[in-house]
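User: Hi! I'm working on a homework problem where we have to compare a predicted structure to a textbook description. Could you give me the structure for the chain below?
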Amino acid sequence: MLPLHDIKVLEFTHAVMGPTTGLLLADMGAEVIHIEPPEGDSTRRLRGFGTGYFPFYSRNKKSLAIDLKSDAGKEIIYQLVNNADVIVENFGPGTMERLGFGYEKLHAINPRLIYCSLKGFLSGPYEKRHAMDEVVQMMGGLAYMTGRPGDPLRAGTSIVDITGGMFGYIGILLALYERARTGEGKYVKSALFETTAFLMGQHMAYGAITQTPVPPMPARVSAWSIYRIFITKDTQQVFIGIISEKHWERFCTIFNRTDWLHDERLKTNNNRIAQRDWLLPEVETMMRTFTKKDIITKCEQADIPFAPVATPEDLFDDPQLTIGGSLLTTTLPDGTVAHLPTFPLEYGGEKATLRLHPPAIGEHTAAILSSIGISHDVIESLKEQNIINCQEPLNPNP
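Assistant: Happy to help. Predicted structure tokens:
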């Protein structure tokens, strides 16, 4: 039995931030009902890098396809709120209030309700602004830190959306814990910009201490003398990180450079940093004499940190993920079968499993309405009026 098995969640979300919060709740056992319009969540139709959003963030969720602007649709939502534990929403500022589903309205219906809003900004001068992951990466310093000097670059995934969604999840868990004592729900809010600022905290502290401009990551002086990517004999790339004196000793030994161990200029990590101008070119030249496989084998034998530079598709065959059971065989809404990462946590020695494939539009609409006492005839009437949508899935759930 999963820890959140008795928690009911209504998810009014799109794109990444809100669906991340819902996914984390669903993977830990909550019944998460994704509310989408009869034509389907617009995220389903995204292309480019948006192609993977809905398929990845929608497993273990149910779909209720309903017209939220209709009177009948609103009444159904109010009925569901009566027995819900959590609302998750990441619509634009003021949208939920205009629809009639703001915090004050729903809290009056169900005082035990925990209401989680995921926005661009927390309370302050910017809180009415719209924001997206890339917007806050630019204004929060992350793009500056990722790119080379003068060339800001967004991170290679929706890192702020995902992390902001995680903070929303943490807030919900705190509110559930408090509700167990007080019986009252809570309003919880997470935001993209403040999440980015939190991610920048270590760099802000560096700037405060050094009183110098913080350099972007590619221009930084690393805390470690060897902590970088090297090109191999077969023109592949391998990252090696030497972060202790034990690592340095084993590195020199396995690569037959014991002369470096006896060089007083290289005695400590800080000494080696001071000698980087000549040391790193020598290490680079040495690495070019070994193949990628040779370097990986030696690093494994020496028990020093290393990593081949991988692509996302390499992860489908990664032994740690496949043998370790961290990929879930998932049937996506278009029928594609993919092996996608599970919740990255072992809880009581177990990992989260797949209970529901990402749903078709309105796949669970009829069952959800039936569960609150709406008759078959009324459901059929709502379908005819295009207030709800009920679709059959392409593939059965596990």
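For your comparison, note the following. Residues 159-182 form the longest helix (24 residues). The chain has 18 helices and 14 strands. Good luck with the assignment!
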